[in-house]
Predict the 3D structure of the following.
Amino acid sequence: MAIKSMTGFGRAEGLWETWSLRVEIKSLNHRFLEIIPRLPRRYQGLEERLRRLIRERCARGRFEVYVQIIGLPPGFQALNVNTELAAQYISNLRLLKTMFGLAGEPQVSDLLRMRDVFTAVESEEDLEALWQEFEPVLNKALEELLQMRLIEGEYLARVLREQLGVLQKIIDQIEGLREQVFHRAKIRLEERIKTLLADKDLDPLRLHQEVVILADRMDITEELDRLRSHLRQFEKTLDEPGPHGRRLDFLIQEMFREINTLSTKAGAAEISQLAVEAKCTLEKMREQVQNIE
């Protein structure tokens, strides 16, 4: 499965004779899967089906779904007449007429101005029929969004592979400096021991023991081996079925830890500088990984 970004946008529209349906879906970065539908009353009964459709296609991200009805679908509204309320209005008008000696009779036009006598209500429709008109438009918008996520994901994978190459070169440079750094540290150690012993003879056994301790303290072989292992796992993950984001983020954290450890153990300015470059590269990779599903 290809790398997929978590950001994308899709829009689709369904057209009928007297009305149209527009669906827009926007996805953003998120640690988990969050779906926020904004549906007109007509489709509110389909919210769980909408959520299920997105869950089947996506693993992570914040999805905002906007649905708009333009015009009036057939049977969208019905006119309700409250005859009991109308009768009360007419009765009270006639009472007022008698009490105050007013002329004329209540007219139909008067009823139109009276609150709640006429109300427009949305008609109840079969959910299956509604899904048949809604699902194709929703699917088309979702497909457009997923295609955008794939295109962005391909770009992110390409950038990450380039950064992996940079990181590999830095690790090779650190490897190349390891013996040189240890040799310099060994010479400094011998000079310190000679200074401390002053006129006394240098004990070869004592020197050997100190060198062994120094070599153990400065040995970064395990850190370099683990770094290379993490690099291989990272590259392998890019080619494996997703989702990928959490695993890649974990590997970057582990590489940060190994870089910090070897920089401290080596205790050399050249390696510290390379470690800084490695961490800058890892930070760039982390920014890219934050956007991967």
About this structure: Strands lie at 8-15, 19-28, 33-38, 61-71, 77-81, 118-122. DSSP finds eight helices and six strands in the chain.
